[in-house]
Specification:
single chain; alpha+beta; D-amino Acid Aminotransferase, Chain A, domain 1; D-amino Acid Aminotransferase, Chain A, domain 2; 9-stranded mixed β-sheet; about 30% strand; globular; binds pyridoxal-5'-phosphate
């Protein structure tokens, strides 16, 4: 990670090294944090944060699920993200707003603990490797399933959920893959360790529904909308493991990941083993938002 000058911490910009918390903070022991991951881009018309309002709305939705009393409005956090980028002179950055229960009591209930709110931002390149966007990645189906319904809510982007992701990541790295695909508790396809998945079959896009233990990604939603402009049909439907093997194309979507083709699953080549035509068209439309080649008809680019 590349440190910057300052981090926004409980309403103030503090030096990077001073944004610290006590070792007995509740979140360290019980995973009681929520967060967002957002990207900014140097576009043809200035520095823009992609879908900033939607990300902050999701942060507040996560807080609602966990009944976390955020002392700030969504607009205050939106403004703080922009202030942080400007203060650190960042352009192509990754922004990490988060809230966590801090130091107060060691019991499981966080009621005696203060809710700390912070935002960090730093430069961060391609999540799955510099080549991944063009070359794609080799994946395997994880032996770890995603969370079962009514256990941990997958719609909340909460720190504790990422223990599931860590198990998945450790396993695929040990076996030499670049990412994995996890199934839900029923055995249907869910998502990657930190990204959603799409399948192309007979020129149709299919992606698992929100009930398949996924985080309903904003990049996933952007693909829905970009696909509409290309007259492509998108269907939310359960996907079986074996239909992954028979897909014409597969790709991942996520803020950190962006849009990455999947070239193999469990050692079986997907389609031609390279980014397929529909994946390429969607990548072009997505990255075109930042180069100016795709019109931002949704107001997704929030300029500093
Ligand atoms: C588990 C998980 N699923 C999906 C996503 C994709 O969501 P988004 O496109 O909003 O970044 C992410 C990344 O935030 C994630 O961590």
């Amino acid at each position: 990670m590349q440190p910057t000058e300052t981090i926004w911490f409980n309403g103030k910009l503090v030096p990077w090294d001073q944004a610290q918390t006590h070792v007995l903070s509740h979140a360290i022991h019980y995973g009681s944090s929520i967060f967002e991951g957002i990207r900014s881009y140097q576009t043809a018309t200035g520095i823009a944060i992609f879908r900033l309002q939607d990300h902050i709305k999701r942060l507040f939705d996560s807080a609602k699920i966990y009944r976390m009393p955020l002392d700030y409005s969504q607009q205050q956090i939106v403004r703080a993200c922009k202030e942080l980028l400007s203060a650190n002179q960042l352009t192509n950055a990754y922004i990490r707003p988060f809230a966590f229960f801090g130091y107060g009591s060691i019991g499981v209930s966080p009621k005696q603990c203060p809710l700390e709110v912070s935002i960090a931002a730093f430069e961060w390149g391609a999540y799955l490797g510099e080549d991944s966007i063009e070359q794609g990645v080799d994946t395997a189906v994880s032996s770890w399933n995603r969370v079962a319904p009514n256990t941990l809510p997958s719609a909340a982007k909460a720190g504790g959920n990422y223990l599931s992701s860590q198990l998945i990541v450790e396993e695929y790295q040990r076996h030499g893959y670049q990412e994995a695909i996890a199934l839900d508790a029923r055995g249907f396809v869910s998502e990657g360790s930190g990204q959603n998945i799409f399948m192309v079959k007979d020129n149709k896009l299919i992606t698992p529904p929100s009930t398949a233990a996924i985080l309903t990604g904003l990049t996933r939603d952007s693909v829905f909308k970009l696909a509409q402009t290309m007259d492509l049909t998108v269907q939310e439907a359960d996907i079986s493991r074996e239909s992954l093997y028979l897909a014409d194309e597969l790709f991942f979507t996520g803020t950190a990941t962006e849009i990455v083709p999947i070239r193999s699953v469990d050692g079986l080549t997907i389609g031609s083993g390279r980014a397929g035509n529909i994946t390429k068209q969607l990548q072009q439309a997505f990255f075109g938002l930042f180069s100016g080649e795709t019109e931002d008809q949704w107001g997704w680019l929030d300029y500093l």
